[in-house]
Every structure is written in C-alpha cells, then in structure tokens.
Amino acid sequence: MPDIKDSFLAKLDQIESRYDEIEKQISNIAIAGDSAKLVALSKEKGRLKAIATKYREYQKIIANIKDTREILTDKALDEDFKSLAKEELQQLENKKQAQMEEIKNTLVMADKMDVDSVIMEIRAGTGGEEAALFARDLYEMYIKYTEGRKWKIEPLSFHVSEMGGFREVIFSIKGPGVYSELAYEAGGHRVQRVPQTESQGRIHTSAATVAVLPEPGELDIQINPNDVVEYISRAGGPGGQNVNKVNSAVRLEHVPTGITVNMRDERSQHKNRAKAWRVLRSKLYNLYEGKKRAERESQRRSMVGSGDRSEKIRTYNFPQNRVTDHRINLSLYNLDKIIAGDLGELIAALKDYDKQQRLKNL
C-alpha cells in the first residue's frame, strides 16, 4: 500500500498535470470559439491555479535541496564552503515544510474558497413574533458584517411579521471568498432574552434557522426545463395595488426532487421568475454537491456542521451578553458587538477548527 505522503504527492502531480492540460486547451483555436467551454475551463483553471503554483514552488525547493546535498558529498570542496551549504540546507528544509503546510491548507479549504456568491435564507422558528424579530436581528447582523467586508448585497424576498420581524428573508451576497466566511452560519440559531412582547420580564427562548447556499452559474448546473413546473398567481399581502391585482407571483416546483421556490416580492412577473430560478439553481446545486461530499468524505460528521437547519449550532444569551457556538464549545462574552456585525473572531475560530479537522482527515 503506498505511503500517505506518496499518494498525496501523486494527487498534487495530477492537479499540476490537469492545470497544464487546461492551459493548452484554452490556447487551442477550436476551444477559443466555444464560449461556454472556454468559461468552464477558465473557472477550473482559476480553482487549480493557487495549488499548482504553490506545488511548483515546492518542487523548486526540492531541487535546491538535492543540489545542496550534492555539495555536501563533494570531497573536493573545502569545509568552510560545506558549512555554508549546511546552513542553507537547514533553511531549505524549513522552507520545504512550511510550503507543504501551505499547500495542504490551500487544498483542504479549496471547496469553500472558490465560491464568491451565496444565497442566504433566514426563517423564524419556534417562538412566534419573537422568533421573527430574532430572524430580523440575524439578517441585520449579517448585513453589517457584509458591509464591513465590502461585499455586494442583493435582497431577493422578504416576508414581514406584524411587529416588523421577518418570517422569512432571502438575499444574495457576492464577494471574494464569501462562502469560506459564511458557510459556518448554516444551521439552527437560538436566542435567550426578554422579548418585546413579554410584560412580566421573563426570559424566553426562541429560534431561527439559517441556510447558506453556494450560488452556481448557469454553466455549473444544468436543469432540465421539463423537470420544472411553474405556477403563476396574484401576490397577496402588503405591497401596493399593482402587486395584488397582477398575476406576478411565481412558484417553481422541481418535480424529481420536490424542491419548491416561491417569489412574489417584485411587481414584475419576469423579475420574480428570474429570482426564483436563481434560488432553485442554488438549492439543487447544494443538494447534489451535498450528495457528492457525503460519498467522498466518510469523515464528514467530524467537520464543522453539515449545514442542516435542524442542527442547533449557536445560542445568543442576551442577559449574559454571551454567544456560545456549540460545535466548537466556544463562548464569547461580547454579544453586543457580535449582533452589531463583529463576527470576525467567531468566524476565524470556526475556520481554524474546520481546517484542522480537514487536515486530520486528509
């Protein structure tokens, strides 16, 4: 059975070989005229570039180590020169180890790093009106964090409660590495505080769920239009006379999976349809990629969460100004800052834990 290190280097050889192959294909005149194939190859090249580049640097270090060792075995050279070679060899060995660690870190997190657009869904859970208000707080928390990162936000759908909370909110966020930052937010969020609706000052527990779906391009996932049934209706609820009188609401049902998407916020049926297809594409992509990951990673359960909405991942305790992430047993006593969008420390801890688990399972 081959050594783990040898099999890992073999994988890196395959990545480098594929990267070279893509470069040749892109320069091919026949492929240059096929825009769809060219875009797909360019995306794949972008995903492999960082690993291929780092691996080539690693190979250069290995070659330098070999040359330096040959100097040390050369009997014709004086001891002073060999002494310098020994120092250089030690530096190269340290550089080699550091470079390999960097390659591993890049490789294990590659599936998150190359996604620069996500669709987030926040839904109120148990707790009635207080749960809807908590869902709104979560939305505002993510918006503030997103604005701090200079990412682009696009609202897709809002279902507002009587007190101004959110029964459901769907929005997209675009920016470099956005999925690598926000993927860990998927799951069940619980809040403990005195609700606005509580007259006797008692602490209540309410919940909301968050989904974080990578948003694929049309080339990344193909959906057979014959598998999708579209329903058109009038958009009920607040939104003005035109919204209620015109058949603008769109519901899409993907028959093979049973996934449905409703979109009714826009006055334009065309805009609602476009938004609904974006959300459907993301849901199907997440479903199919999840199946692939489950097949590929038998150690999946040891990662930081599966993104399942039923999984309770975090508790926000307002009386104690505490946030506890149950996946890594981390409690931070700065809830006021976190709810105001200062998620950096929490996300960094989750990313580091995830990376360490992935390295163990490599």
Short description:
The chain has 362 residues and is α+β, with helices and mostly antiparallel strands. 50% of the residues lie in helices and 20% in strands.
Uncertain parts: 238-243, 296-303
Strand coverage percent: 15-25%
Q: What is the N-to-C order of secondary-structure elements (H for helix, E for strand)?
A: HHHHHEHEEHEEEHEEHEEEHH
Structure annotation, total helices: 11
Q: What spatial form do the alpha-carbon principal axes imply? A: flat
> How much is the radius of gyration in Å?
26 Å
Q: Give a count of the beta strands, DSSP E runs of length 2 or more.
A: 11
Mean pLDDT: 85
Q: CATH top level of the largest domain?
A: Alpha Beta
Q: Pairing-aware structural class of the strands and helices?
A: alpha+beta
- The tally of structural domains comes to 3
Give the N-terminus to C-terminus distance in angstroms. Answer: 16 Å
CATH architecture of the largest domain: 2-Layer Sandwich
The percentage helix is 40-55%
State the CATH topology of the largest domain. Alpha-Beta Plaits
Largest sheet: 8 strands, mixed
- Give me the side-by-side strand order of the main sheet: 2-3-1-5-4-9-10-11
Structure description:
With 362 residues, the protein is of the alpha+beta class. It folds into 3 domains: 4-108; 116-217 and 301-360, Alpha-Beta Plaits, CATH 3.30.70; 225-294, Double Stranded RNA Binding Domain. The protein is built from 11 helices and 11 strands. The protein has helices at residues 4-26, 29-32, 35-72, 79-108, 110-113, 128-148, 178-182, 241-245, 269-296, 335-339, 344-360; strands spanning 117-124, 152-160, 166-174, 187-193, 204-214, 228-233, 249-254, 259-263, 312-317, 322-325, 330-332. The strands form 2 sheets. It has an 8-stranded mixed sheet. Strands 6-7-8 form a 3-stranded antiparallel sheet, covered by helices on one side. Strand 10 (322-325) and strand 11 form a beta hairpin. Helix 1 (4-26) crosses helix 3 (35-72) and helix 3 (35-72) runs antiparallel to helix 4. The longest helix has 38 residues, at 35-72. The two termini are 16 Å apart. 25% of the residues are buried. Residues 238-243 and 296-303 have low confidence and may be disordered.
